[in-house]
Amino acid sequence: MWCKRVSSASGITPATTGRTWLDEAAGPAELALASQEARALNQCLQRLEQPQRQAISLAYLKDMSHSELSEQLQVPLGTIKSWIRRGLERLRTCLESLS
User: Fold this and answer.
1) Tens digits of per-residue pLDDT, 44-77?
2) How far apart are CA 83 and CA 5, in angstroms?
3) Residue 37: domain span
4) Which of 23, 57, 71, 77 is the most buried (most CB within 10 A)?
């Protein structure tokens, strides 16, 4: 689940939130919470600058490496790494403020 990967990468984990990851046997309450968290993540993603949002989305949704992103977006590898690092930092701050 990409939501879980992005949350983990930005430092939001079950250990930091006191919650557990959703499993296949989740009930209605857990599904509602997961939906709420997915909406919060989407809201925070929309607040990112477009290059950061694009780099993070491609890295986590399309499972692209930093090198692949650099080639596809035609920007230096260091720029990709900066966009992802700064974007994940902003995501973490945004998600913490919403929780």
Assistant:
1) 999 999 999 999 999 998 999 999 999 999 999 9
2) 17
3) 2-12+26-98
4) 57
Is 80 contained in some domain? yes
CB 11 within 8 A of CB 96: no
What is the spatial distance between Cα 50 and Cα 98, in angstroms, rounded to a whole number?
Answer: 21
Domain count, the chain: 1
Quote the pTM value: 0.68
Q: Which CATH number fits the domain that encloses residue 57?
A: 1.10.10.10
Return the pLDDT at 10: 56
Smallest CA-to-CA distance from 52 within 74, 81, 72, 78 is with: 81
CB 87 within 8 A of CB 56: yes
C-alpha–C-alpha distance, residues 56 and 44, integer Å = 12
The counts of H helices and E strands in the chain are 6, 0
**22 vs 33: CA distance, rounded Å:** 9
Task: Pull the structure tokens for residue 53.
Answer: 């949002």
